[in-house]
Amino acid sequence: MSDQRRAKIEAAFFNVEDAATYLGISTNTLYVWRHRRQGPPSFRMGPGGRVMYRRDLLDAWLGEQQAADSRSNTALSPLAKAPQRRSPRRAA
């Protein structure tokens, strides 16, 4: 990665392209998430209404995604729970 590109990634605010690079996804995915209101929080900045992302909010959103995933959060894993016993069937 070039020094200029690295400096952009260390910025406090990202445009769509830089946010997608930071998250490791395509810009199209980020646009689709924004349209569906599923992805990280964003806002429009300036008179042109340029879509921007705050780095700290991207990090917080990533943390939320990780906490909601049962593979990285053992409290949510169904394998961490004791198996349930079936109650005996009653005779009809």
Write up this protein.
The chain is an alpha+beta fold and 92 residues long. The chain has four helices and three strands. Strands 1-3-2 form a three-stranded antiparallel β-sheet.
Beta content comes to 5-15%
Largest sheet: 3 strands, antiparallel
Provide mean pLDDT, rounded: 84
How many whole angstroms does the radius of gyration measure? 21 Å
State the low-pLDDT regions, or none.
none
From the structure provided, what is the oligomeric state, counting identical versus distinct chains?
single chain
The string of secondary-structure elements, in order, is HEHHEEH
Q: How far is it from the N-terminal to the C-terminal residue, by CA?
A: 72 Å
Which strand order do you get reading across the main beta sheet? Answer: 1-3-2
| Shape verdict | elongated
In brief, what are we looking at here?
This protein has 92 residues and is an alpha+beta fold. The chain has helices spanning 3-9, 16-23, 27-36, 55-67; strands at residues 13-15, 43-45, 50-54.
What would the keywords be for this entry?
alpha+beta, 4 helices, 12% strand, 3-stranded antiparallel beta sheet, single chain
Write the layout of secondary structure elements.
Elements: H1 3-9, E1 13-15, H2 16-23, H3 27-36, E2 43-45, E3 50-54, H4 55-67
Antiparallel strand pairs: 1-3, 2-3
Helix pairs in contact: 2-3
